[in-house]
Design brief:
The chain is mainly alpha-helical. Helices cover 74% and strands 0% of the residues. Helix 3 packs parallel to helix 5.
Amino acid sequence: MKKDLMRIAAAISVFFVPGLAAAHTGSHEVSGLLSGISHPLMGLDHLIVILAVGLWLGASVRKQAPLMVTVFLAFLGLGAVVGVSGFVLPSVETGIAVSVLVAGLLVATLARLPAVATMALLALFALFNGAAHGIEMPVATMPLLYGLGLLLSTAVLQLAAVRLGQMVHGVRAEWLLRTTGVLGGGFGAWLLLGV
């Protein structure tokens, strides 16, 4: 069990990788599949939402987690289409910051919500994050490949976090999840102060 806890702690440490900033600052190249795959790793705000949602789903809705990840991905794609189309969601940066804060709090509290409420939250989180990505896509050399890479990377990261959440719940080490959630939510609060 101690070995499992060490592995889980090492996996969760991705939240604390230094040097990551907002992913949608316009300071990175946007071109093609590899750029889309790497994009979620370039910003702590997007990375925390992706991982926190996965951890929360893995620990709280376990059996419905794949469906919920699909909902998140569908609305991430929809948000990207909205962003590409030129329609600007109001307060995108604030929406992203709030999604980071709330996702962290969901992990910290291990909240269990009805399926409809869970889907609604995931849809909101993904719409705002997807819109930020979509705003960047028109400058992409190959926007469709960029979008595909973004969705693939997000799916892999989120499903890995789901599995991690299931493992932590399985070894009765919820304190790791709660601590991670508090730190992620704290980052969201910090983002809100800077918006």
